[in-house]
Amino acid sequence: MGFALFILLLLVAIGLLILTQAWPAMQEFGLSFLWTSSWNPVEGRESFGVLPIIYGTLVSAAIALLIAVPLGLGTALFLSENFIPLKIRTVLVFMVELLAAIPSVVYGLWGIFVLIPALRWFFDLFGIFFTGPSMLAASLVLSIMILPIITAISRDSLAALPPELRQGSYGLGATRWGTIFRVLVPAAISGIVGGVMLALGRAMGETMAVTMLIGNANTISLSLLDPSNTIASLLANQFAEARGIQVAALMYAAFVLVILTLIVNILADWIVRKLQAKY
Amino acid sequence: MVDTMPMTGTATDVVLRAKDCDMYYGSLKAVRDVSIDIPKNKITAFIGPSGCGKSTVLRCFNRLNDLIESFRLKGQMTYHGQDLYASDVDPVEVRRRIGILFQKPNPFPKSIYDNIAYGPRISGFKGDMDELVETSLRRAVLWDEVKDKLPESGFSLSGGQQQRLCIARTIAVQPEVLLMDEPCSALDPISTLKIEELMKELVQNYTIIIVTHNMEQATRVADYTGFYNAQVVEGAGGKVGYLAEFGETQKIFNDPTLEETKDYVTGRFG
Amino acid sequence: MTTISGVPGDSSDTFDIQSLKAKRSRSRNLFNIIMTGLSGLSILIALVPLVLVLFYVFINGVNRLDLDLFTQLPPPPGSAGGGIANAIVGTLIVVAIAAAISVPIGVLCAIWLSEFGGGDTSIDEYVRFGVNILAGVPSIIAGVFIYGIMVRPGRPGYSALAGGVALAVLMLPTIVRTADEALKIVPQEIRWAALAVGASNYQTILKVVLPAAIPSILTGVTLAIARAAGETAPLIFTALFSPFRFNGVTNPIATLSVLVYNFATLPFQPQQELAWAASLVLVLMVLLTSIIARVVTRQKTY
């Protein structure tokens, strides 16, 4: 009994600790923390607001999804149909899983020394100045990192569909892609959406690769080529050296991140459960 | 027994014809030497013990076995004289002409209406969809039961109703032939009788082939019956199915030519 | 029974035999070919980064893959030579601490879920839901949590232990999930058989069910350890970093992943080379454990 409740207690403990540690900052800055833009830890002149950082968190995650959802879904469909022999498919499935196994910090290193120079070269062709660390670089690497989640969960929910559905559709004279778009994907949609939500939660909380590539600038810029910041990379950058009210402000930011990912993950859990109830 | 001559009923028109067909899963020969003529606007039943290839033959008629990677057909199958497996034949077009119904009712997770409208929509049907849905449901004798709940999920129906929904769904694409793979084995006796009555109604417009384990069902509905049997293959460790005898249902059940048929229909084995 | 005449379907006498030909449906086939091509293209695009990352990690890391790498300490910033011995040892120690905490708790939790939970399905549901939520907690939050408990001013401070506990928080949901699934796969008949010959509930679980599930549990644990070894975010302000050799679990400790992070952003080439070499070691560790775990799972008992 005790051990199972341990998980729930742990969750409560995480929430409570962050909340109590954030409390001084919550009293000091209130909700205006969420929509002000200055982040000044200099003693005596402290002011903290996370609007640009929330913006960066949401926009980088959204761009990553925009890239990863079509690619991930296409990959899942390709791997759940019999386009190629089963043995090759098994290898490809394993390779897609490997994408998720590569440590985040290695993606960051690769991003700094391979992806950013490549992007710089590319933009040079059009005479566009590209600084390097930017929203674009971070989002691209994020999309690589969340693609395996979308693929794995979409593939699982497609594979969980009863084979009679496919046969029924073919039996009525549907083509392969007619069957996929009109029967299989609609039937598996809650699992697919649940997977996308999980990927969104993962993208919002992803830290290392983003920290190394986003440039950590607390400003809102509409250009994807400009540096930005996310809550997770703010925490990664500042925690080790933070003192006093800055720690509380960081805890406040961490609390915002927890709430954001919690909402997304609860939604994902709920959506996936709906699928299981149907079959 | 080996008989390579097509076994023909006395009917006039032949819709489907199999000639010297062998069927393989990978290197395993599952069915051998099937030659049969399926007469138009009649119900033909396939009976026989489990694993004798009845369903395999049935699914060959609308190329549904194409979905199984390892499946291979040797021999010729024709539909109104045209080779079903010719390279320029589109299996999708074949399946629109030759519909199929499965053992387990398999409605799509869509509304009752959309279940019926699915087939016509993918075939590019341009007419009055509401009318077609109603007509199809009426033909499947389901209309009165579902006319007030067309937007509800197909899963909200009982097993027997689901199977009739699947029949309605199949006839909505206006096929000429209905293949039925043990359509009643998952249903209760009352639903089964309803489906049987429906089949007798439908056969005026359609050619029906039904695979069944239920011999009484064959005698109740079928005009013609094919008895499939299986024999053990020496050394290969498997069984290969074959069409043992085919003829009018009356004859198969009352005066079969072969001893094995007689043993089976009188319940001595299988 | 209702029969309707004059509806579609009656016209089979005038049936057009040519319509079976494929040529009538060229646009449909074109659509299918395009879609197949697009989905095949998406898997190709998805795998390009994998190949590129592995390729660059290998060619940039392999020239420092010598004996020094595994035996020497990192040189001062700007100097060449040296190795990452302390980080390799550190990663092993931190991961070992994490495993020592999370594996027993996780497996016991899974046993409770799959063996005793049946009595009260609502608590069962809550716990499984909790496991899913915990799995979705960003890894940096695990670091923030342990920082608040063990590191912040007034607490013991940065230590290998704090790093290990933070990783344990991350590993826990993975271990509960895989162990839960491994126990569920053990056929119910095995439990009944053991109970039928007079074994108690605990004996059945300890002597019959758990041994049967152990291969799959081990796979899950191995994968969780492999993932934890690559984690950086929970370590940067719990375990911190150390340029020295291992000096007890209550002191800051070097790990491979934090070393990559720290050295990647230094403007000195020798440090960047070490970052690539450490990445290679890390990737090899993660890949090898993933592959081994997968090969082991193939030999299932049930």
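Residues 16 and 215 of chain A are 31 Å apart (CA to CA).
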